[in-house]
Amino acid sequence: MNALHNGIHRLGLRIYFEDTDAGGIVYHANYLRYAERGRSEALRALGVPHAAMIATHGRMFVVRRANIDYERPARLDDWLVVATTVLVIGAARVTLDQTIWRDDVALVRIELGLACIDAVSQRAARLPAPMRAALERMRVDGIADGLGAVEGT
């Protein structure tokens, strides 16, 4: 599963032995890796993958802030879905909601702040209009609740 629908991008992934600790529970830092995959695939689905952002616009995203709530553990062999939505688009910043689900149960919620920077100078830079327009396709009001509904809409 790798799809964008109604402003929510969903990426499915399986939990392998390499993702877990000795007890078969996903190591906490791996959720950030899953979120990164979700963001990368969301940008690809929007038509602005990282390499194209750099090559065409000379811009890239860096993580500025991450607020993570670990609600339940994922375990070996689970099938998870990383749901990504855009909450806020600023001049040079983007705030995302990324929730990692198993079936209809939210396991991890991440509110992520991204900064748009110039790829050469690595200083904050305005989002180019095509990138902004692409991100608007994923902007929702509220936080994704479940795999389809969004709170506040």
Characteristics:
alpha+beta; 41% strand; single chain; six-stranded antiparallel beta sheet; two-stranded antiparallel sheet; 153 residues; 8 strands
Q: Report the sheet with the most strands, covering strand number, pairing sense and barrel closure.
A: 6 strands, antiparallel
**N-to-C CA distance:** 24 Å
The tally of strands reads: 8
Beta fraction: 35-45%
- State the order of secondary-structure elements, H for helix, E for strand: EEHHEEEEHEE
Spans where pLDDT lies below 50 across 5 or more residues: 146-153
Average pLDDT score: 91
Q: What would you call the shape? A: elongated
Describe this protein's structure.
- The protein is α+β, with helices and mostly antiparallel strands.
- The chain is 22% helix and 41% strand.
- The chain has three helices and eight strands.
- Strands 1-2-4-5-6-3 form a six-stranded antiparallel beta sheet. The chain has a two-stranded antiparallel sheet with strand order 7-8.
- A hairpin with a 3-residue loop joins β4 and β5 (93-102).
- The longest helix has 17 residues, at 30-46.
- It starts with a strand and ends with a strand.
- Residues 146-153 have low confidence and may be disordered.
